[in-house]
Amino acid sequence: MSEHSRVKHAGPLSGVRIVEFAGVGPVQFAGMMFADMGAEVIRIDRPNPASLLELEYDILDRGRRSITLDLKTPVGVAAALRICESSDALIEGYRPGVMERLGLGPEIVQSRNRRLVFGRATGWGQYGPLSAAAGHDINYISISGALHAIGERNQPAIPLNLVGDFGGGGMMLAFGVLSALFEAKQSGLGQVVDAAMTDGVATLLASIYSLHASGKWSDQRHSNLVDGGSPVYGTYSCADGRWISIGPLELKFYHLLLGKLGLDLERFSDPSDRHAWPSLRDALRGAFQQRTQQHWCEILEGSDVCFAPVLNFKEAPLHPHNVARATFVKLDGIVQPAPCPRLSRTPGAVRGPPPKAGADTSQVLQELGFSPAEILELCV
Q1: Angle between the 277-288 and 251-261 helix axes, to the nearest 10 degrees?
Q2: pLDDT beyond 80 at 52
């Protein structure tokens, strides 16, 4: 994979300034999405920030500049307020009440800038019986119904932290902030975006709740069409211990798969027959275990059998389809996902590496009109 050069052209969010109060997870992810699309994202780090993961190169932090402010001091809070005066949006992921205690709550900030959009990402939301409690992705997807539905029959499986932190949190925060920015252009007024991961995950589950309400989704895990219950929507091991995935839910695609595997079409004609699922699963398992993953790629990949090899993080960027689409790029020697989604006229771009905390304090403050004496006082 070739080294990706930083792109200087303007993205669709060029001219938008967003203040990001540093944190991990959803706010960090939303900040990356905004920066990839051309927004000027100014990350406010605290002095000597502690990182849960202590990464030397955190892809989620790419594309913005970082300043350090001590928000426990009046001068640090005053500087943050001043930065917000010339910004379009603010995003933060502290527990409810923290920004208010710092003197940076929505009422104060928006009194200084009435058009500012105040984006807040939390697990439980800004109010509710659990709003003040600590938690993580696994807890938020638990009470939304998602965790119960994922995994083997006898135990839920943890889907990384993709569903709560990034799908239900970061993406919903970004969507909410952009929606509010669009409305602010018409009204001239900002508003508060309450992006709770519990709410976001529930929204992601809309289609499953629809199936459940229609009596077409069982609460028994691993017994439904797309939760691993159906033999034609799942993963299978190969002769070399590698894995492949199949998903031919449509009858014509299913029949095509059986034909390529040499299985008895008459015996397994109806993939919706639940009584036949155990024997069908055994037949598919036996067939796939006879050959290597590479063999099945050569036979099935690119056809309509709905097939793909299960790849690890080293293999995925090298897959020919991902290479052709430049789904992954390399910057500073680090392989990372390219900006997404793709826009035809004003595409997103990786605009720079993750900054060190406070690396841009002097430059950013100078650009925003702070005097040398003020900058000296704030450089901690």
Answers
A1: 50
A2: no
Residues 6+ apart with CB under 8 A from 3: 330, 331, 333
pLDDT in tens, 129-152: 999 999 999 999 999 999 999 999
Query: What's domain 17-204+327-378's architecture?
Result: 3-Layer(aba) Sandwich (3.40)
Q: From edge to edge, which strands make up the β-sheet containing 192-196?
A: 65-68, 40-45, 17-21, 89-92, 117-122, 192-196
Give tens-digit pLDDT for 305-364: 999 999 999 999 999 999 999 999 999 999 999 999 999 999 999 999 999 999 999 999
Task: Work out the average pLDDT over 210-230.
Answer: 95
**149: its two tokens:** 């539905």
Is the pLDDT at 225 greater than 60, yes or no? Answer: yes
Catalytic annotation on 88? no
Instruction: Give CA–CA dist 122/135, Å, rounded.
Output: 9
Contacts of 250 (CB under 8 A, 6+ apart): none
Q: Where do the domains of the chain lie? A: 17-204+327-378, 234-323
Tokens of 78: 């005053």
Residue 309, SS3? Answer: strand
Catalytic residue among 9, 136, 148, 321: 136
Size of the chain in residues: 380
pLDDT score, position 50: 66
Q: Which fold has domain 234-323?
A: formyl-coa transferase, domain 3 (3.30.1540)
**What pLDDT, on a 0 to 100 scale, did the predictor assign at position 126?**
97
Does residue 4 have an active-site annotation?
Answer: no
Active-site entry in 36, 165, 227, 360? 165
